[in-house]
Write a structure and sequence with these properties.
Layout (H helix, E strand, L loop, with lengths): L2 H13 L5 H13 L17 E2 L5 E5 L7 H4 L7 H12 L20 E5 L12 H17 L5 E5 L1 H15 L14 E2 L5 E5 L4 H4 L6 H15 L2
Parallel strand pairs: 2-3, 2-4, 4-6
Antiparallel strand pairs: 1-3, 5-6
């Protein structure tokens, strides 16, 4: 199979995963009960795969799908305020065809990048457990094995940074010592991947001004530079 076909096969496997009972119960409950403003919509209610350009050089890793975002729409960061910030930044950087994303079939195309989450199911209180992270990370590892051109991983938040460090150790050798610390704009060069840290575009960061649009723009400008885009 080609890389694109292998990624499609992996997507089918991800969306049919039932490994974590707590996450399965929560994602399905949210999809059944729904938020009042989305009461007329059919929720996805399954694991949410990554998506993007099969020739991606930048891999963008978040925490997990939002209960009423990706868990509703079936595409990570799609249909929630964090996604508004992320896709707006990607569009300004020339990495997305449009600045908004409201559904799987809205025409959005990513250019030179791939977006995924460390945990593929919406977790209660947006807090997956370490065991759930470890059960899910093999999906990201297999994505990165198929996305052979990726050289930069943009980590949205400390959870994604920790997950990316684990992935890098599995894919390209011993962990770096001392262990690189997460902060906005942090860089951790490696044999295959350079990690770049970015505060997560959650409302508690964007509403308080901890993360601004220029701050996100600088991260993606740096990621493009490192990736040769």
């Amino acid at each position: 199979m080609s890389a694109a076909e292998s990624l499609e096969a992996l997507e089918r496997e991800i969306t049919n995963c039932f490994r974590c009972p707590r996450l399965v119960a929560w994602r399905e409950e949210v999809a059944r009960v729904k938020r009042a403003s989305f009461a007329d919509q059919d929720y996805w209610g399954r694991p949410v795969p990554g998506f993007g350009d099969p020739r991606a050089r930048i891999y963008i890793l978040g925490l997990a799908p939002a209960a009423h975002g990706g868990n509703r729409t079936g595409r990570v960061f799609t249909g929630d305020r964090s996604g508004d910030w992320l896709f707006g930044a990607l569009h300004r950087a020339g990495l997305a065809s449009q600045p908004t994303s409201v559904g799987r079939d809205d025409g959005l195309e990513l250019i030179g990048c791939w977006v995924a989450a460390a945990v593929r199911c919406a977790p209660p209180a947006n807090k997956p457990t370490p065991a759930e992270r470890d059960a899910c990370l093999p999906f990201a590892r297999r994505e990165l094995e198929l996305l052979e051109d990726v050289t930069v991983i943009v980590c949205l938040g400390s959870f994604a940074w920790d997950a990316a460090l684990r992935l890098r150790t599995e894919l390209s050798g011993p962990p770096v010592r001392p262990r690189p610390k997460f902060t906005h704009g942090a860089e951790a060069p490696g044999e295959r991947f350079t990690l770049v840290g970015c505060f997560h575009p959650s409302q508690q960061n964007t509403f308080t001004g901890k993360l601004t649009e220029p701050m996100m723009d600088s991260v993606f400008a740096r990621a493009k530079d490192l990736a040769g885009l």
